[in-house]
């Protein structure tokens, strides 16, 4: 894989940021889009645009085929047994909310437990808080190791026959840890619980096989994997999707509508009330084709290599704290860090002046920030178009930030 | 984009040596504010007598801009009437929007003018001022002075 050739596909790299070439290291927040995806969106609107599943005219058929074709691409990408297990949503947040609302609430009772790590993104935490409040169930948090990892022994101890749901990210958006989801799923299943996997940071960056993981639900977002914003996926096992209640009611999702009651279509369509995110789904399909052509194994290796390199380089700068796995330990393609005495906002502003885009803040993980005893952190996250030169530019700009503030404050 | 326009020496001085940091007695008006998008926090306490800010203190955590702005703000409003303080807040917000500023009224606060060119950082600079506006709107401040 050749990141320099890949960059040619991404028009955004023509942009100058404050007079510098763009060094985009905020991929965990959202990815950039290749021309191949942008072209498909344009072609859809120029020559296929129509509503789906309605009417008999030619454009309607084209749009429906393109939309359902995208569903098949997603299914193949995550090795789902059937495209009917792929629900199109607005993103990870909506997917998890739909499970918490339509599945979990109906199955939770006072005394039941939802097991999750405290390091979860707010979108895999608050829906469970709300479900617990509505049903009288309790949240039970898994302990984190110093490096943010989760020990299977702790999962064994926390998951009991009272557990109905285990919710966990495959990859933490702050720590870059890769959680042993397959093993955790086995533990959950032994106790009759379902496992809901937040794949927002894993599906874009590594091969995902839902059958191998044996997860019950998997949520992810298109915009973090070269697709447009506003499209995401909820994968579910057929029996669970069949039991699960829709969240949105209206057009598209119904079977028979009477004056006082109605019935729904089968999954996945019963979850896609209203005109669906047609262009978004087709764009996601194109993004998946692009990623598949390069190969997810390759991308995973590339991202992890850049993150490892960054961890090594940061270890050479005095006053930099890196969170998550230590040097040489497995980590996904992101590095969260702080520079002593300089607030991450200030770090990010100085980096931005050099054209380097990183994230600064709490990364939608306030409970984790408390565990790390920080108010905020900065994060560099990598993707297929990043290069070792990007790491160099980032490290150089960080040294500048250190010097600038050391000088200004000193 | 010039970093020196943003991080002026006065700002760095206030960041490094914040004025009026600490706590007042419990009878002071207290406002807790946080910027949910980035985690910056401030607790502002104000002792108001006869419509005049007798004392003011803050505690918080945040970036250089938010903490320096809080430090300068507390310095600036001490001894002012509530309505003068609110007028200053208004002028400060105007400066953040890039409006021509009354430099006499702003004094040292003028050093934060560069923030207006960094839209992502304006919220950092205005956090303390928002706390001031909340505190001034508190029922404990008498109605006349507020007007
Ligand atoms: C781990 C994780 N979960 C969930 C989300 C939420 O994704 P979205 O905002 O696309 O719904 C994100 C990204 O912001 C994330 O990193």
Describe this structure in words.
The complex is a heterodimer of chains A (410) and B (147). With 410 residues, chain A is an alpha/beta fold. Chain A has two domains: 1-24 and 295-405, Aspartate Aminotransferase, domain 1; 35-291, Type I PLP-dependent aspartate aminotransferase-like (Major domain) (Aspartate Aminotransferase, domain 2). Helix content of chain A is 40%, strand content 16%. Chain A contains 14 helices and 17 strands. Chain A has helices at residues 3-7, 35-47, 58-77, 92-107, 126-135, 152-158, 181-190, 210-213, 238-243, 278-294, 296-315, 344-353, 366-371, 388-409; strands at residues 16-17, 20-21, 23-24, 86-89, 113-116, 138-141, 163-169, 194-198, 217-221, 232-236, 254-257, 262-264, 320-322, 334-339, 356-357, 359-361, 377-381. The radius of gyration of chain A is 22 Å and the shape is globular. Chain B has a single domain, classed as Sufe protein. Chain: A (Alpha-Beta Complex), CATH 3.90.1010.10. Chain B has helices at 3-6, 9-16, 64-77, 82-96, 103-106, 122-137, 143-146; strands spanning 29-34, 41-49, 52-61. The radius of gyration of chain B is 14 Å and the shape is globular. The termini of chain B are far apart. The interface between A and B is medium-sized, with 21 and 23 residues. Pyridoxal-5'-phosphate binds at residues 28, 91-93, 121, 123-124, 169, 173, 198, 200-201, 221, 364 of chain A. Residues 28, 91-93, 121, 123-124, 169, 173, 198, 200-201, 221, 364 of chain A line the site of pyridoxal-5'-phosphate.
